[in-house]
Amino acid sequence: MALRSQGGLLLPSMLVLTLAFTVSCTIASPRIGNKIKSVTFLSPEFVLEPGSVENRFYYSIDFPRGHVALKSFRAEVVDEAGKSIPLHETYLHHWLVGKYYQRQDMAENNGDQKIQPENYIFGGNSGICQGTTLRQYFGLGSETRKTDTHIPDPYAIEIGNPAEIPEGYEEKWMINVHAIDTRGAVDRLGCTECRCELYNVTVDEDGQTLRPGYKGGISCCYDQTRCKVRKGYEGARRSLYLRYTVEWIDWDCGIIPVKVFIFDVTDTGKRLNVSIGSSPEIGCQVEFDVASCNTGSAVSDGCIDVHRTSLTMPVGGSVIYGVAHQHTGGIGSTLYGEDGRVICNSEPIYGQGKDAGDEAGYIVGMSTCYPEPGSIQITAGENLVLESNYSSTQKHIGVMGLFYILVADRTPNPTNFWHSPIHIHEKIRVSKSSLAVVSLLGLAVVGVGLRHRLKKGERRRRL
Ligand SMILES: *[C@@H]1O[C@H](CO)[C@@H](O)[C@H](O)[C@H]1NC(C)=O
Ligand SMILES: *[C@@H]1O[C@H](CO)[C@@H](O)[C@H](O)[C@H]1NC(C)=O
Ligand SMILES: *[C@@H]1O[C@H](CO)[C@@H](O)[C@H](O)[C@H]1NC(C)=O
After folding, report:
1. Ligand 1 center to residue 229 CA distance, Å?
2. pLDDT per residue over 58-84, tens digit each?
3. Predicted local distance difference test score (pLDDT) of residue 118
4. Where is average pLDDT lowest: 4-8, 325-329, 370-374, 441-445?
5. Each residue's pLDDT tens digit, 167-190
6. Which of 123, 176, 258, 427 is deepest in the core (most CB within 10 A)?
7. 183 C-alpha vs ligand 1 centroid, how far in Å?
8. Residue 389 Cα to ligand 3 middle (Å)
9. Which of 304, 305, 367 to mutate to test the pocket of ligand 3 (most atoms within 8 A of CB)?
10. For residue 192, with 0-12 CB atoms within 10 Å meaning exposed, 13-18 middle and 19 or more buried, which class applies?
11. Confidence of residue 413 (pLDDT cuts 50, 70, 90)
């Protein structure tokens, strides 16, 4: 064996290392907080001027590689100097991060808008909308700066698991950024709601006539459209970026993976077994309109528009995190269990001023739910009810009522010692080449740590 040839000194320490590794996977729990990695990336540049819209899909983005556990994802729009851009200048309609698999023998595809479907396999979240609709792993809009996204220990989103990547393919990530420059806009809210009349749009991105009665939404503010700007308004063209920070840890069998589900209040529940995007009858419509209570016949609703739908949860588990997504006008959203219990209530935080992160009139954050693990369980096949409320004191076009939850299929084993300090965890993770150095030079230090750890492991095993 190669190890033996490196000398007698190495062997005992190798054995200790190997043992400790086994122990850490079966008995001990990692102190995940100790070794979170965090990296901040910039999306490709996009250029905006007053009224203009960018809705781009960037493929093969910078992202953690290998078999890792994602802990959080934060994003915001910044300029070339790294300055945060407020929503009243550049409205961040949404950003989405999705997974796909690319054939290994393909040339790199960076930022290409059109990809050949035969070379790619879409890697969606766990559901539940039709086809590729709302199948992203992460995604937020104007609320991005003040919405908590961290996943508490010992949970995380597992990515890059070699066992899940189709043979001959590699896992890649894409990001979609949809931003609208509303500097000088005739009607700022109208531009952010993508009202067709302000964009002078009558056909969608594919040249199809808009359906009758379609007043606004994503089909009217696609890439390179323009929202109406006040005559004579001058505003510089400028280069912007989505700056995103990903936190992750190396995969470890002490981590409990969570599944990502996104629910949509417009989901009709109908599915076809071909992926056809959306039609008025099928699945998630994503957007809807809110009629003004002043023009409606009944004003008895207190000017609250309540959208509600029933959804069937395909798998069971424990809810670890929940958050809703609403647009301006939103006043709260709740996901209920079949028996009426509240699974999560999420409410918008409106800005109060002018600065980035606190823009008045915009939803700058959504409250989140972090239930005590195990306290909120959903059973497979349970019918959930999603409710999304909007103020209807004025009409709203193209708004959303989404709900994002993370579900774990198990909770930590109580015999795991969560609070035991395992400081050497990071040190075990050394590459093979540096192992010899650690073993020879650091034998005393590392060895003591490992033995201490081993004893703990043995004690646990006996319990
Ligand atoms: C709106 O679009 C029509 C046809 O697409 C065009 O003739 C007209 O000039 C546009 N109006 C404005 C204000 O851009
Ligand atoms: C598709 O529809 C057919 C006929 O209704 C059904 O037999 C089949 O199981 C469906 N396939 C899937 C994947 O749902
Ligand atoms: C939505 O509005 C209805 C009617 O006012 C109310 O009963 C319900 O609690 C509201 N739900 C949320 C999530 O705000």
Report:
1. 14
2. 999 999 999 999 999 999 999 999 999
3. 77
4. 441-445
5. 999 999 999 999 999 999 999 999
6. 258
7. 21
8. 6
9. 304
10. buried
11. confident
Q: What size, in residues, is the chain?
A: 463
Complete DSSP assignment for 383-415? EEEEEEEEE-SS-EEEEEEEEEEEEES----TT
Please tell me the predicted confidence (pLDDT) of residue 138.
97
Q: Which ligand is nearest to the CA of 271?
A: 2
Cβ–ligand 3 distance for 346 under 6 Å, the answer no
Q: What is the pLDDT of residues 269-319, one digit of tens each?
A: 988 765 555 566 789 999 999 999 986 555 556 899 999 999 999 999 999
327, two tokens: 């647009």
- Three-state secondary structure of 412-426: CCCCCCCCCCCCCHH
Q: What does each C-alpha distance from 133 to 218, 367, 385 come to in angstroms?
A: 13, 24, 20
CA of 202 to the centre of ligand 1 (A): 10
Q: Residue 270 Cα, ligand 2 centroid: separation in angstroms?
A: 13
The amino acid at residue 325 is: H
pLDDT higher at 436 or 309: 309
Q: Measure 272 CA to ligand 2 centroid, in angstroms.
A: 8
| Ligand 3, atom nearest to 331 Cα | 14
CA–CA distance, 351 with 460 (Å, rounded to integer): 50
Q: 256-264 and 155-159 as β-strands: parallel, antiparallel, unpaired?
A: parallel
- Dihedral sign, Cα of residue 243, residue 249, residue 251, residue 253: negative
Backbone φ and ψ for 227, nearest 5 degrees, come out as -95, 150
Reading the block at residue 417, the tokens are 């010692």
For ligand 3, pick from 293, 387, 390, 403 the residue to mutate: most ligand atoms within 8 Å of CB.
387
Extents of the domains making up the chain: 35-411
Ligand nearest to the CA of 273: 2
